[in-house]
Amino acid sequence: MTSESPLGIRDFVKYPFLEESMKYIRPRVSKLKLEDLETTEYKELYDKVKKRTIASVRHRITPIFEDMYKDVDLELLSFLISVIVLKSTNNELLINRYSLAEARRAESFLRQELGREESMPIIRYVFEKVTSYGMEFSGLPPPLSFKLKLIPYLKLTSNFNGLTWKLSNRLVDRGYVYVKDREAVRLIREGSYRLIMRIMRESPNPLMPPKLQKLVEVLRAIRPPHRALTPPRTPSEFPPCITILLNKIEKGENISHFGRFFLTTFLLAIGWEVEKVINLYSTMPDFNESMTRYQVEHIAGLRGGRKRYSAPSCKLLSTYGLCFKDDYCNDIRSPLRYMRKKK
Amino acid sequence: MKEKSLEFLRRRYRWYYFNRQNLLKLPYSYQEREFGFRSFDGLIKRHLSFNSQNDFYAYILQNVPRSIYYSVSLYEEPTFPMNEKGWKSADIPFDIDLKDIDHRCREVHDFWICTSCSLLGRLPTPETCPNCNGKLIEYYWICDDCLTKLREEVYKLYDLLENDLGIDRAKLKVHFSGNLGFHLIIEDTEFEELGQKERVELVDYIMLHGFRYSSFKYNSVYVPRERRWSYRIDEIIKRLGESDHKLTDLDVVKKLGIKIDASVTVDLHRIFRLPDSLHDDTGLAKKECTDLEKFDPFSEAVVFEDDVTSIFVYYSPPIKLKENFFGPFKKERVRVPAYVAVYLIAKGLADI
């Protein structure tokens, strides 16, 4: 990994979540109390925090202040206090949104570095700092500038859905995956997001003075209404993977263990009663009521570890050969999301 | 299977585990693994652990299981219920099984038998017995061509793990599974920390699931022509570079994807057959193949002696075990060496 930092103070403003940016501002933080933000002296800081948090949660990208280099300390403090404010909302959804918004802001700065050869060491350096994984120059002509080890690649892209990110469509060689500089920046966004989430978890959760507490309430109110899944009413709304399994049962054909597991998790998730699910399997050639009851109740979280199992993702289903995509599937990640899209 | 036959098998398995226990080595960090057993009653017992090799041997000799399994995962508490075990890491197992490989010789040597009237037939298997409507069991058979196909698949996987994924060959072990294929396992590498999601991705890469010409091209368009990659990627680039290529994505996947049983590699809770333990359906041992090319499962994995035993065979195609030929048999009582008796009885094709 690279060690000497190519970053200057202006870069701290762009990437406030980096260890060295935080280290830079730490002496100032220790002198500051949250109550100070109630005073007129710190009104400017309070305003920045307010804008930073509200805009991040509303617009999904943290705003870039025009005067960000004017007072670097103030800028960095606004990040740290925003983190504490968000943590205090105690709302996972908001915390997630904010972390992603900050990561996007950083990404937008890195995008401006693209295409400039002298910026490649910066991209590499920021990547290594936010992910704690190494990234090497590929030795290939740009834009295929970087390569990283397989395990970091798999870990960083585990939530990515695009087909170009799929390992099967990648240049993989001797344990390395080759990425374009633009993709390295996208991976930095993912790394930054995870790093900010960690900073959030590790940051203190103090009692908020009135003014900041009011901001916390405002943020809580922004929370978008939680979109509940509307369970399908009739089998005609089921995704093809489920329909195929149900047809097999109807014909008395055998289904694999994983197929049954999937069908059970799905049906329980859309509100079927345990009894109804057991009844469904009663026509199977190898039906054994007590065994089926045990399995279904286990999946429903009524037995053993009391954990209710969720339905497997489309990705996993496809690996097991149970995915039968149709035109309505589009880019859904879980068969449970199918019906909503179809409507 | 008749009670007497089960007892015969049990006695033979016990003989093997008593006399060859020095072969039965526990995997590294076995104290952190879960063990599971299938008994001759068909019951599965899981979530056991052992603190010493001796405790393990004592258990085996006392219980004489029909199958012995160990978890590929290491846990804080291997005996706790699954979601309280505290997952730490897991070896990466692969299963290359005849059932997942297209082989035309199936039509020549595979067959089915009716469980009630013993009627016999070739593929395709009807839903029920045409004679008595009874339940049918389908039998996979393995011939030299099948073995060659399986080996080819193992070599392809070997090559990919080494050249694409950069895994040290010394960390790879290949075993004959004891029945219809080979097991590969990657032990004690940084890959052990991969969770299920990442393993799915790895399996997709190996099987080439999700391959799209357009996406691959997008990712490789800037690569200089003279640059060499691993065998498979070179093949893809070469094939797709031909201006008039007529291959569909599916053709490429079929040709270059490796046929493994995905569920084995992806499932972190899987228990895996212990090397040198006996397979329940054949009585053959799961054996390490130090020289895959020369490895002959039908002599090296045969562990029983040749004392003569009388059995009634419902049906058996000609077989070759320990370099000797037997059969074909059809509804007849025959006197055969014990290793043949164990093999046919375990397969459900004969009784004492």
Question: Which terms would index this structure?
Answer:
heterodimer, A: 343 residues, mainly alpha, 4-stranded antiparallel β-sheet, 54% helix, 3% strand, globular, B: 352 residues, alpha+beta, 18 strands, 23% strand
Explain what you see.
The complex is a heterodimer of chains A (343) and B (352). Chain A is mostly helical and 343 residues long. Chain A has 15 helices and four strands. In chain A, strands 1-2-4-3 form a four-stranded antiparallel sheet. In chain A, α3 crosses α4, α4 crosses α9 and α6 runs parallel beside α8. Chain A starts with 8 loop residues before the first helix and ends with a helix. Chain B has 352 residues and is of the alpha+beta class. In chain B, 31% of the residues lie in helices and 23% in strands. Chain B contains eleven helices and 18 strands. In chain B, a hairpin with a 5-residue loop joins β1 and β2. Chain B is globular and about 70 Å long. The N and C termini of chain B lie close together (9 Å). The mean pLDDT of chain B is 92. Classes of the chains: A mainly alpha (343), B alpha+beta (352). At the A-B interface, α7, β3 and α14 of A face α5, α6 and α9 of B.
